[in-house]
Specification:
Structural class: alpha+beta
Largest sheet: 3 strands, mixed
CATH topology: GMP Synthetase, Chain A, domain 3
Order of helices and strands: HEEHHEHH
Radius of gyration: 21 Å
Distance between the termini: 63 Å
Number of helices: 5
Strand content: 15-25%
CATH superfamily: K homology (KH) domain
Shape: elongated
Number of domains: 1
């Protein structure tokens, strides 16, 4: 297995930051939810492709609409990325949904429900007798 290079990690981080800025401030597609966040970027070793993980707060309809908007805006976003970053190749962007934030919120809600139920069902020792 090949070890990840420090250079590729820096490129991933720079692409992540730049894409976040471009999507937040320059993309005007109304399908893209205002509560969209880039959760991660993985650029291949040859810098030809990048997987961009996207999370959207809200319903699945909002995620679907946002993904469509990002896919249709990918040419514009890639062009802006090329102007902002000085890379040998500007990677082709592939937007993928990331459900980790939604999953975390769901798990947190479930934990809160269990704690509330335990507190409600728990009888203090001095009241048991």
């Amino acid at each position: 297995m090949r070890r990840r290079s420090v250079k590729l990690d820096r490129i991933n981080e720079e692409v992540y930051r730049t894409l976040s800025d471009i999507i937040r401030s320059e993309v005007k597609d109304p399908r893209i939810s205002p509560i969209t966040s880039i959760t991660g970027v993985e650029v291949t070793n040859d810098l030809k492709q990048a997987k961009v993980y996207v999370s959207v707060f809200g319903e699945n309809d909002a995620l679907d609409e946002t993904m469509e908007g990002l896919k249709s805006s990918s040419g514009f976003i890639r062009g802006r990325l090329a102007k902002e970053l000085n890379l040998r190749n500007t990677p082709e962007l592939k937007f993928l949904p990331d459900a980790s934030i939604a999953y975390g919120l769901k798990m947190s809600k479930m934990i809160d429900e269990v704690v509330a139920r335990d507190e409600r069902d728990h009888v203090p020792e001095d009241e048991e007798q």
